[in-house]
Amino acid sequence: MRRLLPLIVTVVMLIGVGAASFTTLQALKPKPKQADEVLPGLAVFVERVQREDLVFTVKAQGEVRPQREISVASQISGRIADVSPDFIDGGFIREGQVLVRLESADYELGVVRAQAGVASAEQRLAREQAEADVAREDLINLGITESSPLARREPQLAEAQAALKSAEAQLADAELALARTAIRSPFTGRVRDKAVDIGQFVSPGQALGRIFATDVVEVVLPVADAELGRLGLPLAFAQTETSPGPEVMFSGMVGGVERQWTGRVSRTAAAVSTRTRLINVIAELDDPFGEGADDGAPMAPGLFVQASLQGARETGLLKAPRAAIRSGNELYVGDPAMGELRIYKVDVVHSDPNGAWFSSAEIDAGALAIVSPIQAAFDGMSITLLERLEDGTIYSHEPGSDGDATLAASQAGFSGAEVKGQ
Description:
The protein contains five helices and 26 strands. It is an alpha+beta fold. It has four domains: about 45-50 and about 315-420, conserved putative lor/sdh protein from methanococcus maripaludis s2 fold (Beta Barrel); about 60-65 and about 215-315, Elongation Factor Tu (Ef-tu), domain 3, CATH 2.40.30; about 75-100 and about 180-210, CATH 2.40.50.100; about 105-180. A hairpin with a 3-residue loop joins strand 18 (about 325) and strand 19. Helix 2 (about 105-140) runs antiparallel to helix 3. The chain is rod-shaped and about 195 Å long.
């Protein structure tokens, strides 16, 4: 026990010295400075508001049809003697070209008979004129001053003159029938189908085939009344040289390749469709098989096409991404200097997938429109603005910063993306 007592005293002394030293160090340790913790605001993406004119575009679709298409028919009866080699399905034809020729022998004989009738009528008229002259001389020689028309042979002369006119009319009719043995195309175009061939007997009015003109094709595009207003067209519009219709861009698949053709609105329907409550806009394309074709691909009749109609232009508008418009007429804008959200009321003129056009007295071009979804947003809400640049990097707008980026990509949830400061 006597041996342990010095050891115990030594341990107690060491513990006392250690406790005194720890207390002294704690008393002399400087107190840490208190700093206010700054929490970053909600990170949102922004895009610049631009000043851009609005050109209304109306989308529609329809089937291409020729402006002129007729059924070729004979005006007389007869047997077909010849058919043009171009008068086949899909054939190209010219204006005035003979498509079908009928046997003409009977009609040539009819012309000869009519010519003989004219010659006989002329001879009879000449005889009546001579007899009328003799009758007038006889009356003068007899001293008769008052005589009847019959004594002067005036009725007989009038009858001969009428007979001549009748014979001449019969001759003209025979010549017309002979000319109609050649059935010609009234315009330059193409043959849709042929229904007859050589040796077939045809009757007046019988259809021989169908042809259509290739100078102009048209597409009927049904649009709503509001869309008609965007085009700046009145009901029953018809284009003139001083007031041309809006330009139309047609597109459709031909041979597995999408083709485009440029036409123009020529007129609108005079009434609203009672079945669909839509208004038909008729657009035309000139020379679809020639200069109007797309690299040789024509906008052929029967083709179903999409149409984009260029409408009226409104100037002095601002454009923002459609996602930046909230509740129909509110625009969320980021304040980069304060790092806060601002909510403005705007007058939205038009909105489509390409953006929203609006007017506002409080917003100008260059404002940072917020496109990220925000729940329970309020004016003055703390936010961090992120702007994606053209090169793909993300630009962080720091409140009150001198241009250095302080927000890390991982902090904003965009790992791997480069973040630059303002």
